[in-house]
Amino acid sequence: MHAALLEIADDCLVLGHRLSEWCGHAPMLEEDLALPNMALDLIGTARVLYDHAGTLEGQGRGENDLAYFRGERDFVNCLLVERPNGDFAQTMLRQLYFAAFMEPYWRAAMDSTDPVVAGAAGKAVKEVAYHVRHAGEWVIRLGDGTEESARRMRRAVDALHRYTGELFESSPAAAAAEAAGMLPKRAEMRGDWDRVIGMVFAEAGLDLPQDAYMQTGGRQGIHSEGLGHMLADMQSVARAHPGAVW
Amino acid sequence: MSDLARRAFQVAAQVPDPEIPVLTLEDLGILRGVDEAEGKAIVRLSPTYSGCPATAAIELSVASALEEAGIPARIDRVLSPPWTTDWITEAGRAKLTAYGIAPPVSGGKATLFGEAPDVPCPRCGATQTERVSEFGSTPCKAHWRCRACGEPFDYFKCI
Predict the structure, then answer these.
(1) Residue of B82, B114, B137 lying closest to A122 (CB–CB)
(2) Can you give the pLDDT at residue A245?
(3) Percentage of chain A lying above the pLDDT 90 cut
(4) Of B50, B52, B53, the CB nearest to A124
(5) Distance of CA A78 to the CA centre of its chain
């Protein structure tokens, strides 16, 4: 069961790290606080899941081993979360796509047969509601903003929409955890996700791509180029000083 | 509750929150209880936000306060049921306001994604306030501004 938890933990850690890359670079002070705040929520959730996955695996691996000492091919996050930040429009759309999936997912996971998953879900569902709202408001503001902001938002849709299909697919590990009642069925989030994304896109004046090609592979460890660079950056200190404590 | 557990509760309850030191852990509602097992006090604490950096600092402060009091103890982190701002006590809410942080408000104006709260200014009490950003200096706070007295202030987010 630990493999299914790693998928969600990796999603949260990778997106959390991506958001943290904005720290000190955001277009305004409020966003410089908002983006790392969302990163903290995601990394906090990832820590609980890594810790639990390590316990279930029973090989003595802890959160740090799982976060810092696995290579790119061992990461099983979905492709959406590893996409580079791009511009602010792209970061906000990526956040909306992910959070609009995770909000109903965590809500359903509160009924998990696994009390740690249910506990993590109960916390995360309240935090991710803020992420949906924050990212949704920005997608509307930019999509329905100036000619330039609308152009950037359309470009973000072109760049990212193809990675949304993977959110709804369950790997064999996830399917087993779903059958055991440990995790919610990913495909069942479709209705809620479509409703939120449809509502935001309508307000933002954006067209929802129809029958778009969907790129997948993250759950099998087949990633885009960006993830390796990100991990090299994220893991370098831990790997240079293995076992360091402070 | 055993005598050891009761003493441990009293010590842990008075530990201040590291970010908002006017609040004790009891005011904040994160001290979930104390039991005794194998001669030790088992102190149950709930984190506020999943990634709140204060979580580890709070656990450390409780552990050292108990050690100073000579009480053998273990700290257990409890995720479920999840902490909610509804657990902040009335005394805690009053202390927050006096400190300049508006306490959490539930309900308010309907917005596209739910409800936006009507938050009175903690300094002048006026309700002509506006949200500057939903995220503030710590995970639990949002950044607001009062249009009556002109002061910016923190709002303790409702979760």
Answers:
(1) B82
(2) 83
(3) 97
(4) B50
(5) 8
Domain count, chain B: 2
Cα separation values, A19 from A67, A125, A227, Å: 16, 19, 14
Judge if B80 and B117 occupy the same domain: no
Q: How many domains does chain A have?
A: 1
Side chain identity at residue B78, one-letter code: V
- Output the furthest CA–CA distance in chain A (Å, rounded): 55
pLDDT at B111: 58
Residue B34 amino acid letter: V
Chain A residues in contact with B50 by the CB 8 A cut-off are: 40-41, 44-45, 47-48, 120, 123-124, 127
| Amino acid of residue B115 | E
List the structure tokens of A58.
């029973």
Segment B38-74, tens digit of pLDDT: 999 999 999 988 888 889 999 999 999 999 999 999 9
Residues of A within 8 A of B81 (CB-CB) are 122
CB nearest A44 (choices: B50, B84, B136): B50
pTM, two decimal places: 0.93
* Domain ranges, residue B45: 3-86
